[in-house]
Specification:
Elements (H helix, E strand, L loop, with lengths): L1 E7 L3 E7 L3 E5 L5 H10 L2 E6 L5 H4 L2 H8 L3 E4 L9 E3 L4 E4 L2 E7 L8 E8 L2 E7 L2 E2 L2 E2 L7 H12 L6 E4 L4 H11 L4 H15 L7 E2 H7 L8 H10 L8 H13 L2
Parallel strand pairs: 3-4, 4-5, 5-6, 10-13
Antiparallel strand pairs: 1-2, 2-3, 7-8, 8-9, 9-10, 11-12, 13-14
């Protein structure tokens, strides 16, 4: 099984997982990169998975569906290009010979979902859209900090070796903010240097791993003493005993960083 981030727009990734014959794509905001990759690799598209309704994640669906006939699965409570099989947390989609578990992760949007799969030779894969980024999380366009905290807690419970396949190349800017929050985190400094080298060589910084995110991502560390202290220092109204309050302060801080 092969995992491939297909670049789209200026900083999106459309994720493709494929075996020798069949492929699945996640959040195809553009059609052409997907169709050209399928043609180059001689693959038949088995399905399209969608995490949320934003245009840069769904804009290519109609053209891809017209060209391939592939069915679409997406969140139960968001507006998407029909026809779509609607799924929500606890559901499972059978693709590439195995299950893709659906996890509800509201926050960035109110109906955002993620997909969790072990199809890559048992390697856990998380396709989390704009909920979790490497070093960051999505803006709270429709949901609340409490929802995002609960969503990130749900993702944190997945296996530590899970590959985190998020939808944007935001890593370097996220890590610069993370260093403002935790300037004395040595793992963060090492990871930033690693990611800068990847970008200099034209490589994506993704996928990350859940283990890495738990060590370096302030939004996954809202219970860590240094992160709490930084949030309270930035906004004294932060409630240090409440991880969602800490996360909310971090998100507002990042919005203007």
């Amino acid at each position: 099984m092969n995992l491939l981030p297909i670049p789209a727009f200026s900083d999106n990734y459309i994720w493709m997982l494929h075996d020798a014959e069949h492929a699945v794509v996640v959040d195809p905001g553009q059609a052409e990169p997907v169709l050209s990759t399928l043609a180059q690799r001689g693959l038949k598209l088995q399905g399209i998975l969608v995490t949320h309704h934003h245009a840069d994640h769904v804009g290519g669906i109609d053209a891809i569906r017209a060209a391939t006939g592939a069915p679409v699965w997406g969140p139960a409570y968001e507006s998407l290009p029909e026809p779509v099989t609607r799924v929500q947390g606890g559901d499972s989609v059978e693709l590439l010979g195995g299950p893709w578990r659906v996890i509800d992760v509201p926050g960035h949007t109110s109906g955002h979902i993620a997909f969790f799969s072990t199809q890559a030779q048992g390697q856990p894969l998380l396709f989390c859209g704009d909920t979790l980024f490497s070093g960051g999380c999505g803006r709270l366009f429709e949901g609340t900090a409490a929802q995002m905290q609960a969503s990130l807690d749900a993702l944190a419970a997945l296996p530590a070796n899970t590959l985190v396949c998020c939808a944007h190349e935001y890593t370097i800017s996220n890590l610069r903010f993370a260093q403002a929050v935790e300037p004395n985190n040595p793992e963060l400094a090492q990871y930033l240097e690693h990611c800068q080298q990847l970008r200099k060589s034209g490589q994506p910084t993704l996928p990350s791993t859940l283990q890495t995110e738990l060590a370096i991502n302030p939004f996954m560390r809202s219970r860590a003493a240094d992160v709490i202290a930084a949030a309270v220092h930035h906004d004294p109204q932060t409630r240090p005993e409440d991880p969602a309050s800490v996360l909310g302060t971090l998100r507002q801080w990042k919005n203007v960083f």
